[in-house]
Amino acid sequence: MHIWVFFILLMFIIYALSFTQPDRVRRNRFVLIGTGILLFLLMGLRYPGGVDATRYCAIHEYFTESGSTVSVVQEHVPLETGYLYYSKALATIFNSPQALMLSQALIVVLCSYYFISRYANDAFLAVLLFVTIGDFAFHLIGFRQSIAMGVCLLAVPAAERKKWLQYGLLLLLAFTFHRSALVFIPFYFLIHLKNQKMWYCLVLIGSVMLFLCIDLVLSIGNEIRNSNYSVTQEFHWKLRAAVLFFLLVAFGLSKTNTVKEHSNVLPVMLLLAASSWIVSCYAYSFVRIGFYFSIGASTALANAISLRRDRMERLIIAIVVAGLAIMLFLYMMSGRMPYFFFWQNPDFSSQFNPEVRSY
């Protein structure tokens, strides 16, 4: 818990130091570089806690020690081909599985910060809200999906410019890391639809209808995938309700949720994140959909605050929202596994057995 408090304090120190820069553009650049390095170190030097990350590191060590091919491993491990080639390439260059954590941290930071630098008016507020309410915690456990999300964020400018081939190729690349990247397909069409308000209402109504029929949807999904997508626990009810409140505040505070007034990127991402989180209040597995759009939602909220014309009003709202977001983040992290640096825990080399098909 203390590491997260210290992390937030360091972010504010970097923000205070940014005022040594002469203008807003340079302050934003200073904040992005400073907090980016901090976030990269925090993510990259972490011990790979959780079942998935630990097993990915074990696969990395198996590649390193056995020199096995991707096809051999894929016979026993039902993972996407792109990710296995990625793991194999890293194992060829680096013996330590910590290279997985470092490379994932680098991809997440570069892609997320590219998005923030392109669409955020106030870099610090956007980064702070991305960390505190933007499903940052999922980056620590959703290893493959966080890489897929980063690739999807690189595809957003292509969607804006209607370069469908470039957009499709990037989504295909993301799909080779995690199949859930397919949820990003509708985004291309939604940002170019006319009569946006009508479509916003339809999406919200659809999410409410899905919420009301979620038992049927889950039962069908369970039969198709032979899985058990159970309903959420009380902890997730509170968490999703709080995050949804922030998103609705963003929707109500601002007439324009992006620096580019002609762009529909942030309003659409905000809407999709809010819709998926409405459903995830009941079925937590739907948070995987909102994960792809949460950075757009948090950036929209940051812009909704920073673009307020009245300076005092902007300051008061920023303090209140930032304070509530930090409390939400610390509450959320207190319910997860404690943070460890990679040198604080034993290794995991024996946890992957290619003969165990149930993996």
Strand content: under 5%
Average pLDDT level: 79
Structural class estimated from helices and strands: mainly alpha
The total count of strands amounts to 0
Query: Helix proportion of residues, in percent?
Result: over 70%
Query: What is the overall silhouette?
Result: globular
Cα Rg: 20 Å
Order of helices and strands: HHHHHHHHHHHHHHHHH
pLDDT < 50 runs, ≥5 residues: 348-359
Helix count? 17
Major sheet, described briefly? none
Between the first and last Cα atoms, what is the distance in angstroms? 31 Å
Main traits of this protein?
359 residues; mainly alpha; 17 helices; disordered C terminus
How does this structure look, described?
Helices cover 70% and strands 0% of the residues. The chain has helices spanning 2-17, 24-44, 51-66, 70-74, 81-93, 98-119, 123-133, 136-139, 143-160, 164-175, 185-190, 196-212, 214-225, 234-253, 265-280, 287-306, 311-334. The protein is mainly alpha-helical and 359 residues long. It is globular and about 65 Å long. It contains 17 helices and no strands.
